[in-house]
Amino acid sequence: MEIYQxxxxxxxxxxxxxxxxxxxxxLVLGQLFFGITEPVLAFDISVHMGTLGAVVVVYxxxxxxxxxxxxxxxxxxxxxKPVSLGSDENLKLALFILAGSIPTAIMGFYLKQFEHILFSxxxxxxxxxxxxxxxxxxxxxxxxxxxxxxxLDLKRALIIGVSQGFAVIPGIxxxxxxxxxxxxxxxxxxxxxxxxxxxxxxxxxxxxxxSILESMEQGSHIDLAMIYGTLVAFxxxxxxxKLLLKLVHAGKFHLFAPYCxxxxxxxxxxxxx
Length: 273
Known about the structure:
Layout: H1 3-18, H2 23-33, H3 41-58, H4 60-78, H5 89-112, H6 115-118, H7 122-138, H8 154-166, H9 174-184, H10 189-217, H11 224-249, H12 257-272
Helix pairs in contact: 1-2, 1-3, 1-11, 2-7, 3-10, 3-11, 4-5, 5-8, 5-10, 7-12, 8-9, 9-10
């Protein structure tokens, strides 16, 4: 892979990881455009780690609070002291994230056996982009205010985790699907977005850990293209994440739907022709 290709693909990953337009779908299309027909596992790992870094930077305060809450909970359990989940919002959030990650992991392991099909079909990407656009458009009817919204609980965390599992399919946006699912469940859009991106941390980390082990077996190594791609993915990811949060808070989340429809239709047309 050339350095200019790595920079373009890194920017594509960074922008589309958080904007609700499917990063995996765009990355597949970008690699096909450059004639990269074989999956570049090590590169995919590196750019995903770049966007993961962007999430950690933006939500560092929340992550630190949850780690502290889990540590304190662990200390109480070790000391055989009573633990009250209801009194610590950070502890509840951490447990909901862990719970929501379970269905994602199960679905990810199941769908992984079809990755040679999922990541090589531009027609599938086009169809799923149209589906993503439809989900985003429907979500405009579910903008909740904090006053009439529903609190996040275990059931809703599991449902959102299931929706995240489907985002393994290229063309289905992880952020778009999980935020919309949270809104469909009656959760305030601000909290739905926050939970969506925090839920991405174990999902991306787990997927990349498995990929790293596979990459080590293949004897992959770090090169200059990967370094450039990762840095660009981090910077553009940071910009995209902050932009999406502003749009979600302003109630304009659904405005990405026309782009997904147009992109999906163009992909289908180009594939057929």
